[in-house]
Structure formats: C-alpha cells, structure tokens
Amino acid sequence: MKALLRDRQAWLFSAKTFAASIAALYVGLAGNLSRPYWAMATVYIVSQPLLGPTRAKGVYRVLGTLLAVAATLVMLPNLVETPLLLSAAMALWLSACLFLALLNRGPRGYAFLLAGYTTAFIGFPAVTAPEGIFDTVVARSEEIILGTVMAVLFASLVFPASVRPMLTARIGNWMQDAAAWCRQVLQRGPSQAPRNRLAADLVQFEALIAFVRHDDPRHAGAAPTLEHLRARMLLLLPVLSSIADRLDAVQRDGSALSPDIAALLDDVAAWVDQGDQARNEDDVAALRARIAAHHPVVDQDIEHLLLASLLLRLEELLDLWQDCRALEQALVQGTATPVLRALPGAARHPATAESSNRADTVQSDPPVRSRTRSSLLQILGWSRRDAATAVPPEQAEAALLGHTGQLRQRSSLLQRLTGSPRNTADAPAPASNARHIDFGMAAFSALSAGFALMAYCVLWTGIGWEGGGNGAMMAAVTAAFFAAQDDPAPSMLTFLTWAVVASVVAGIYLFGIFPAIHDFPMLVLVLAAVFLPIGALLHRPKSMLIALPLVVNLTALLSLQNTYNANIQSFVNAAVAMVLGIGFAVVLTRLFRSVGAEWSARRLVRQGWRTLAEAAEGHGAQDRQQFASRMLDLLGLLAPRLALTPEGSDLASVDMLNEVRVGLNILQLRSARHGLPQLSREAVDAILAEVAAHYRQQVAHKRPLPGPDALRDRLDASLTRVGKVPAGTHRDEALLGLIGLRYSVFAKTVQQPKDITQKPSALAPLPSGR
Prior knowledge:
two-stranded antiparallel sheet, 1% strand, 30 helices, mainly alpha
C-alpha cells in the first residue's frame, strides 16, 4: 500500500483516466445517449499505462465493436423467437472469435476478443425489445467509440508515456543477463544464467514491439530497429548454448584447451564486457583475425571438427553481439538503423544431380582437407557483410555476376522464415512472424468459453428469468478474458470476488450517496473518491486483476444517466445476475477447462518433438524456412511453464535449446545431402528417418526417451562413410551436421563415437548439439 501511495506514475495515470472517463460521461449525457456510462466504462477498458498499447487497443476496440454490431444485426432479428438457437449462435460466435484471438498473440487478437464478447454485451440486453435492435446497436457503438476516442485523446495529449523508454530499459537488462551468460561460458565457469527466462523475455518483447508501431510518432519509427535487434537476440541463445556445449565437451574428456584458444576465449569475454565500447572495429577485427588464424582444416579428425565448429560459433557471436550493441545504441540515441554485420545474405545453391553423380564416381578417393565457413547464421539464410563496405548489395552482385557469370539471389530472412517477398532493408526481422501455434489448445479454450455461455443461457431461459441477460454478458466476458491462461479458474475467482465488492460499493452509492447529489460537479467529486484509487491500482500489473472487475462492474451497476432513477429491485436483479454469470463461468472452467502449467508444458514439449520429427522427415523448403523461429518461439512459451512444474518432474531433463540445435543439425544434413554420393546420401536419409522415428516415439510415450543404440551406431558408421567423400562444402557440412546430431540426440551419453580415423589416441568428446 505504501508503494502505491508513493507511485507518482500510478496516480498520474489514474487522474488522466478519470478525467477521460468524466469527459466521456459528460459528452454522453449532453448528447442524450441512452447509456452514457458505457462510454465511461470503455475509457477504463481501453486505457493502458503506456501510449502505444492504449492506441492499439483503441483501434482494435473500434474494429471489434463494428464486427460485433454486424454479427448482432444478423443473429438477433432472425433468432430472437428461438432463444436456444440464439444462445447457440452467440456461443458459437464467441468461440470462433476467441479462437482467432488466441491465434493472434499481438494487438490484432484484441479485435477478435472484443468482437466475441461485445456481441453478448449488445445482444442479450436487447432480447426483450428486438424491434429496436438497429437503434440499440447504433447507440452502443456511439457510446463505445466515444469512450475509445476520449481514452486515446487523453493518453496522447496529457503527459503521454511512450513504450520505447521502458522497452529500451528492458532490452538493456536482457543484454546484461546475456553478457553474464556469455562471460560464464567463455571463462569455462558454471553457467547459472537464466536461459529460459531470456527466451521468455523475447516473447514479451515481440508484443511490446507491436505496440511501438502505435506509439508516439516520434518513436514509432524505432519498430524496424527493434525487430532487427530481437531477431539477433533470438539467435544469440543457440549460439551461446552451442559454444557452452563445445567447451563442456573438452572439459568432460579432461582435455585442456590450448593456451592460444584459452587466451582467445578470455579476450572475447573481455570484449563482451566492454559494453558499449564493444563496437570498436579495430578490436573486433583483431579478434576475427585471431579466429581465422586458428581455423583448422576440416577432415576426419574429430578434434579438428570440434575446434572448427567452436571457432565458427565464436565468429557468429562476434557478429551478433556487435549488431546487438549497435542496434541498442541506435535505440537509445534515436538514430537510424546502423550498418549491420549479420544481414540477409545469398541463398545457398542446392546441389545439382550432376554434382551428385560426379561425387559418386570418386567416393572411394582419399579424403582431402578443406576449410569450412558454414555457420548457424548461414543455415538460417544469414551471412556476414563487412561493416566498412559502402557498396550496395545489388552493385556487388552485379560485379560478381560480371566476373563469374553466376547471379546469387539475395533473399532476406523474412523470405526464408515466412515465404513473403523481400521488402526493404528496414523490413522487420522475420523471427517475430514464424510463431508456434497450438491450434488444438486454442480450439479447446474457445469451445470451453462458448460452452460456459451456452450452459448459462440454458439455465436462464429454462427458469424464465427476465433480468438474466446481465449474467449472460458477464459469463461471456469472464470466459473470454482469461481463456489464454493454462488454469483460468483462480483468476476468474478473483474477478468474481471483486465483482461482488463492486456490487456492494454500487449499492452504497446508489441508495446512500446519489440521492443527495444534484449537480455534475458534486457527482464528479463523489466518484473521484473511489475511481481515483481504483485507477492507481489499474496501473500496476499485480493489482490490475483487482481494479478491472471493480471499475467495470461498478460503472455498469451505477448506470449513470441524466436522471436519477435507481430501483432497488432492478439493482439487486442486475447484481445477482452478474455474480451468477461470473460464478457459472468459474465453475464450468474449473470442471472442464483448467489444465495447469505442467500439463501445458508437456504439450509444448511434445509439439517441439513433433516439429523435429517433421523436419527430419523432410517436407521441402517450407520446413527449413519455418523451423528456427518457430522452435525459439516455443522455447519462450515453454520457459515460464517449466518454472512452475514441481521438482522431480521428468520435464526437468528436457533442454529445449538442445532440441533447437538438433533441428538445426537436421536442417544442415538435409541441405548437405544433395551434394553427397548416392550411398552416403542414402546413409544420411536412413539416419534422418531414425531420428524422426525416435522423436515420434517420445511424442507417443509423452516423456523423454534415451536415443536408441541402433541410431548411435548408424551415426558412427555414417561419420566414417561421409569422411571418405572428397572434400567440399557439402561433405564438410554433412560431417559437422552428423557430429552435432550425434551429440545432440545422445547428449547424456558419454560413450565416444567410433574413431573414424582409426587413430589410437583418445579424442575429445563432441558438443551436445550444433
């Protein structure tokens, strides 16, 4: 309570919102709107502490209202004579809108949410007078739009609070946590970084970035920069995890890094610790030169493969970290998007049948050592570009075409992840567009809400309760509002509790205070005594679930109009219907909908395994384009649920970042297999089929399973077979993919693969994943 009293921003927000609601109420009263209190309630529903979310909710509130109006005009006049059919139609409409809302996690989903329950708000109270439905929907639309306009105007003109400073501060905190993890990894210390929290934060950043587009025009232009930054922050997670696994492989074997490599790692850690100074080009160039000097040739020697893979990940870390720091500074200083090192690059040409046949003819030739530059970024369609160059990509390609006679098609990461055409250099990074979507859970949640509404309507019509329409409204609102939660019942119960409190407060105002009020200024003063503290509570996320049912239900029950016409019977009828409607939704949700965090975590893990199986089975380019961002998005959704699972759960053994690397190795093998000889390609295909079968079995058993011995033996044999293929890009990528897959799928197994070079000396264990 003391913290709330000292929170100036909370009281400023409350004062702004109260002023906007009073302005909306005054205009509604002056304009003789039939229910001006709807405009007042809309202000509190739309208003958010920050400008961007308020504007976004305002836009989509209006769109949702228009959709609800259209649906009401179609359903009510045609079905009002058959109450059960009307109730079923309303319930199906609510379910359909809620399904679309759950599939759209951004601001657009709010339009569908509003379209679903606003239809109940408009339609059910009008069933007693269906002949005036057109006038009713027009009046409700006017009141909602009036409240929305007032909320947006006051948020925009009176001490506007931009999303950008808050988002910039959170990004700074994220970078500090990532830097701490990076330092722990490079200094070979125990990693205590909250990796899952880093992924979960990036999911939240996506929603905030969407609000930036509706923010103050001075800041809205930062959205492309934020998209580029978030895309690189996402890629940092598997890169850092891969480096940690490679270094852990060396430590597990008891081997020591060479002094030069250890010094290089320490210097990279020191460079990361420089913070804003990490953008110094001379320092970065020196580190890149040292990395290049240590690059081994890629041959059958597993230690060489391990070192080559480690150094490639270090190169990617330098590029990504430098980009992140440059983009962060651009946000803080309000400058344009800087030149970046990790930019959309040339797409890799698939191997032709001719090259495969040519490789078949020389399969038994002795292997030749070669260097590899394949990287995690290249698999995702990213390549490094020197920051100092001033030559546009198109001119560089034209020059390359003149020298080689080959045109390298430039395709952006947006193309690769979404299949959409390339736009401009400032096009949002596509990592935010390829999301994990759970159609089954969305349908289950949506149908549960519709069922709750239908069940209440059956009770309402069955007993012939004339004033039960308020309950139908609140059942729809309550079921829809909390549908995205794993277990909505506790939140709905809190909503019910404070709705009861709102009923008591409304009764005190209606029958104890309002009879003594005779003018508008006095009405404002007595309302301020309650609405200002509620508004301050609404500003704080922890108390929003208290404030929202208080303010919305209190406003509805007060029913402020031009004349005082409170009736105790009507008030009790409305209050009881409201409480019963919410209570009905709570009970049905508890019985049929609540699943819990662990249940949802298991479902997400199984869906991740299913995605890996699909990638291994191979469905063309679509799988390669969508995989990385979808899996990282799934990891962000999974992280907060894993934190709520009980100790000792088998979910604790699931490392979804490791599964991301499994998928990247699968994608690398699917890309490299085209350039391998036929026998080697068949061996790789057999491995991919067994990997798919392994993950299908985990899905069927609903728990993690150890990798089968047959798959491990086949992987070891394939390392030997592919190692005999003549050197080349496809051979090198296949070797790295096979080794990464061998130690990703068998991350818990310490047994070494068979020595493909037949050397007697022990080799370092390989990294757990790509």
